[in-house]
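> @MW can you paste both from yesterday?
MW: sure, first one:
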Amino acid sequence: MDKKRIVFCDFDGTITQNDNIVAIMKHFNPPGWEELVQQLMDGKLSIRQTVGRMFAMLPTSRQAEIVDYAIHNATIRSGFGAFVDYCKEREITLLVTSGGIDFFIYPLLAPFPIPREHIYSNASSFAGDTIEILWPNGCDEHCDNDCGMCKTTIIRSYDPARYHRILIGDSVTDFAGAKLVDTVFARSHLIGLCEELELPFYPFETFYDVMKHLEAMDKHETDIGG
């Protein structure tokens, strides 16, 4: 029986052109956020700790301003809408797996017919004095990276015997998942990481590139089978 194809697609820097969390921090510039990023890079803080502490620096009194900036500053990568349609037409399951935050991910994805249950991200609360990040998609027993939103946990929940698993991403947060899946589409930092471990990947800049590679893969399989 043919495996069903499933896509795990990153959001920040992949579906969008830029990293939205970094853009928010640079724009509102709370004192100390850059030091937190450096501690993350040095391995002293986890992704969950870093993101949680950065947003805790932003007052909820500026909620409307922060949300408005996050939504209007982001640009969707070329071809994404066509890719969503492509997946639907070919019965490819498309999951958005993001370490981003719900308050900008949901509005930015609202124009596209992606079921809410297919969008995995971190959540947020504006009930207190500062923004609190919530973590509904934590690590399973196989991951101790304290990811916050654990992409490998989601990938592992789909049996590789039944699914051809495809990852689309751009950064270090996608690297662990890239080691697990059957096919990797990479751009930016993820390319260098894959090259270091000689991990096979297809480079892309737009989602038209992704569709072109998938079409070529389909043709190859058809030629072999025929």
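MW: second:
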Amino acid sequence: MHCPFCRHPDSRVVDSRTSDDGSSIRRRRQCPQCNRRFTTVETASLSVVKRSGVTEPFSREKIAGGVRKACQGRPVSEDDLALLAQRVEETLRSSGSAEIDAYEIGLAILGPLRELDEVAYLRFASVYQAFDSLEDFEAAITVLRADRDGVDEGAQDAVAGDTAVTPGATSAS
């Protein structure tokens, strides 16, 4: 790291701390030549490769902006959108790749958006997955209903299983 004061090509790390949400590291450095101190902030870069082949830096704001359109008129707050964008970024960073295809970002958005609001999910999926007909919507709705009903039945079975008494069973004390 070059010293910003004397341009010496080296510096010594005096202190390191994680900042904010742990996605960056703040380092306090000292130049061995002029002895002045300065701070650097280090983050792992994440780039998006678009369909055209152009690469640009990842942006949580673009994620939230794209999802915001699908959430118009829905009971979704700005905090919800910020959390969704954070979850998507964490998912993408956990892949370990520095370059992410734009299509993969859309796939990473679908899961958290589905949990947040099913109508917004359908809106986003219809554009993202290029629904061409009513059958595409019907198929997506059928999957949503099956998953929701499956979760509801599973929860009911778990509750029923806790209180069910099997004939002939005895409890050990």
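> thanks! The radius of gyration is 25 Å.
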